[in-house]
# Entry
Amino acid sequence: MVRRFNQTRRKSLTPSDHLRVGPFEEGSFKSALHSARTASILGIALGICFGIAFVTGVLSHLIQNPTSWFHWPSRPAGLFRITQGLHVSTGMMSIPLLLAKLWTVYPKLWKWPIFDDLTHLVERMSLFPLVAGSIFLLFTGLLNINYWYPWPFLFVPAHYWVAWITIGALIVHIGAKAATVRKALSSDTVLIDEVKDGLTRRRFLTLVGAASGVVMLSFAGSTVRFLRKVSVLAPRDPAVGPQGFPVNRSSAQARVAQFALDPNYRLEVEGKMKQVISLSLSNLKAMPQYGAELPIACVEGWSAMVRWRGVRLSDILKLVDAAPGASVRVESMERRGDYRTSILNSTHAMHPDTLLALEANGETLHLEHGFPVRLITPTNPGVMQTKWVGRLVVL
# Structure
C-alpha cells in the first residue's frame, strides 16, 4: 500500500514539483546547522587555509622554476622549511573544514529554481570548479605526502594548475557571495543553543575546529620537532633513516650506485670560466673543509636539521676564476630524473653555507644521501639539494 501511495504521489507531481523535491523529501534537512551563518563561518576559515596553501604552493613552484623577476633569498636558512610546512599543514587542516562546509550547504544544491538572478547564476557556475578542484587538490596532496601515485598524470603540474583554477573559482565565489556573507554574519548574531535534538552551532563549529587542529598536529611533527610524538599520521619520521634523516630517492631508484662508488670518481667543473678542471674525491678532501647546520626540507612537508661538512661552492668558483655574479648548474651522476639538476643563483652560489657536502652528522656521506658529493644550500627545497654530484657548470 505504501509503495502504491508513493507511485500515485509521484505521478501527481508536476515536473517543477518533482525537481523542487530533488532526491530527498522536503523537510529532510531539519538541522538548524544548515544555515547561512554556519556556512559563512566555515567558508571564511576554509578560505584562509586555501589562501595560505595557495601562496606557499606558488612560492614553492617559483623556487623550483624561477622567473627573471623572482629572487629567492638565502636567509634565514629554514625559510622553506616554514613555508612548506605551512603549505602541508593548512592543506591537511582544510579536509575537515571542507567536509563540514559541504555538509552544511548540501541542501542548497537542490534549490529550485537553480538560480534567482545573474549574481546567483555566477555563484552557481563557480561551484563545480571550486568543489571539484578542492577535492582534487586535497585528495592528491594527501596521497602525495604518502608517496602514492595511483594516477597516470604528473602530480606537480596537475596540482599546480588545478590550484590556479580552484583559487580563481574561489575568488568568483567570494565576490558573488560577499553580500550574503555580510548579511548572515551581521543579522543572525544569536548562536543557537536551544536545539534539543542535535548539536548547537557553537558545539558543531568547535568540533570541526578541533578536528582540523587534530589533523594538523597529526602531520606537523614532520616539521616541528617537539610535535613528533603526537604526529601519528605523518608518513615520515624525520629522525629515521641513514645518518639520522630520511631518504626520498634511493640510489637503487636513481640507478647511480656504480657511478657513485667508482674509485676513479671525478667532479667536472666547466662553463664560463678561464679553465676546465676535474677534481677527485681526494682533491676535494684536501681543500678547506667547513661545517654548517642546515635543514633538509622536502616538498612533501617533512624536514630535518643536519650537520653538514664539506667544501664551499664559493671556493670552487674562486678556484676556476668564475665571473662575479655567476650562477651555477649542479648536475647529478643520475642519468634520468626530474630533479637530476638544479640551478643556483649567484646569491646562493656564493653563500658561505652552500657546500659540496662530503659528511653528514659527523660521518662520511651515506650513499643514499648522495655519496660521494651532495649539494646543500640554505632555504632551498630538498629536491634542489642535488645528490651524487658529478658536474658543475658555471653559467
Remarks:
- Residues 155-187 form the longest helix (33 residues).
- Residues 311 and 356 are 5 Å apart (CA to CA).
- The beta strands are 266-271, 277-280, 290-297, 303-312, 328-332, 341-344, 355-360, 363-364, 374-376, 389-394.
